[in-house]
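Action item from last meeting closed. Structure (450 res):
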């Protein structure tokens, strides 16, 4: 057993063996009984064996009563993606309803949790309410915030421990595949230098997991000094929840299933039956509506205005069944919503544009099939556009502006998919998506090349 433990464990033998002995009271119970038997064997000293039997028995009973090897499931969704005040739980609801016991049927083994959080041994206490942990409360409340912001009901998230992780490590799984991980220090505070303060802090240097910013784990005593120096300070559970929020936000288009779409449509049908009855199933299937909504979510666009989206889609569903084309039409119904995050305080929109001849040259490379839209251009032209655009994007980021590029409607989706791997934060908007009253300020122009 020791050899097998050593071969499969990630940690050193002493730590791994100690965890396994202390996590499962059954092993300690057996040990207590064996020591008790040895204490009455003739020729062996009774007092030492009896004392050890009593101690291990008490330890087994204590772990059996208070231990929590398997954590309960909680419903979640992102908490908005921004750090709140340390310890603040405003808007976070407590888990409702009794904990569901696992089924004894073998079919239950086929169930794959959509979202799951794995916690290292040192983080299990954060989810145990008996020990003052409020991680379950925070995670549960995220679902409500995400539904209000993005219009999507995120399925429940299961929290469980994983001995293969480091003591203070955590990991997010989406349909069984890791999509994010990090490390936090319970009892400490994460101080991030958001104001470029010159004050140095005493603590453990680290990197903030969401935005990859340099940060420092500090104690509660050093926390006050960090706040006075202008640092943004958050507690350890807030770091994990914020990381979870951003992970779900970036992956919500993968989370949305056809069953989720059916639930959204059933809910909308109660208030807008005409919209749903006209569109489904006579013109579009549930799968096609799912593709349309996934395209919007993939670019961070809320689908809470589902009635307006489906009305716009219904206007063009008779002429095309291509989900990519229909999602572009749906964007026009959300023009003000799409443009608002990129406007300045004065209401203007600063954006990168292209030479009209370059737009025509790129439009010739658009390839459209029954269900897909792609951009195919020469390597020389691609290198010119990427190098020039990279320079302009860095200039806008340095100026504190979100990079935006404008292009014709027929080119927008193909251009966005072409650049999404290289410029993940670049917003690609079409001229038809800019409201009439919004003034466009030209940040830069990508020139034409022969």
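Sequence:
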């Amino acid at each position: 057993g020791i050899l097998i433990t050593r071969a499969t464990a990630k940690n050193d033998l002493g730590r791994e063996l100690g965890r396994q002995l202390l996590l499962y009271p059954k092993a300690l119970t057996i040990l207590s009984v064996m020591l008790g038997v040895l204490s009455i064997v003739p020729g062996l000293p009774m007092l030492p064996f009896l004392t050890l039997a009593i101690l291990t028995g008490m330890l087994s009973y204590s772990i059996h009563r208070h231990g929590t090897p398997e954590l309960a499931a909680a419903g979640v969704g992102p908490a908005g993606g921004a750090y709140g005040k340390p310890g603040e739980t405003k808007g976070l609801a407590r888990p409702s309803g009794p904990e569901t016991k696992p089924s004894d049927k073998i079919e239950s083994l086929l169930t794959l949790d959509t979202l799951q959080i794995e916690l290292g041994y040192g983080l299990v206490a954060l989810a145990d309410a008996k020990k003052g942990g409020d991680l379950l409360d925070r995670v549960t409340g995220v679902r409500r915030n995400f539904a209000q912001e993005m219009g999507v009901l995120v399925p429940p998230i299961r929290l469980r421990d994983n001995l293969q992780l480091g003591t203070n490590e955590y990991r997010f799984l989406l349909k069984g595949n890791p999509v994010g991980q990090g490390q936090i220090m319970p009892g400490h505070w994460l101080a991030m230098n958001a104001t470029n303060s010159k004050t140095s802090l005493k603590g453990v240097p680290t990197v903030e997991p969401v935005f990859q910013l340099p940060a420092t784990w500090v104690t509660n005593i050093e926390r006050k000094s960090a706040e006075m120096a202008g640092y943004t300070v958050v507690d350890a559970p807030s770091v994990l929840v914020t990381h979870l929020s951003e992970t779900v936000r970036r992956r919500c288009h993968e989370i949305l299933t056809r069953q989720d779409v059916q639930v959204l449509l059933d809910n909308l049908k109660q208030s807008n039956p005409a919209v749903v009855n006209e569109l489904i199933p006579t013109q579009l299937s549930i799968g096609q509506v799912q593709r349309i909504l996934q395209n919007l979510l993939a670019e961070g666009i809320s689908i809470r205005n589902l009635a307006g989206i489906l009305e716009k889609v219904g206007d063009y569903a008779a002429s095309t069944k291509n989900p990519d084309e229909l999602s572009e039409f749906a964007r026009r119904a959300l023009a003000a919503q799409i443009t608002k995050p990129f406007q300045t305080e004065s209401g203007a929109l600063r954006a990168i544009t292209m030479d009209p001849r370059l737009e025509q040259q790129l439009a010739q490379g658009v390839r459209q099939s029954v269900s897909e839209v792609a951009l195919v251009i020469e390597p020389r032209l691609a290198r010119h556009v990427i190098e020039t655009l990279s320079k302009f994007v860095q200039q806008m980021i340095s100026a504190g502006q979100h990079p935006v590029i404008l292009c014709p409607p027929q080119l927008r989706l193909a251009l966005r998919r072409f650049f999404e791997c290289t410029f993940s934060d670049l917003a690609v908007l079409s001229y038809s998506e800019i409201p009439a009253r919004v003034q466009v300020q030209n940040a830069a122009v990508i020139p034409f090349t022969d």
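Note appended to the action item: The two ends are 70 Å apart (CA to CA).
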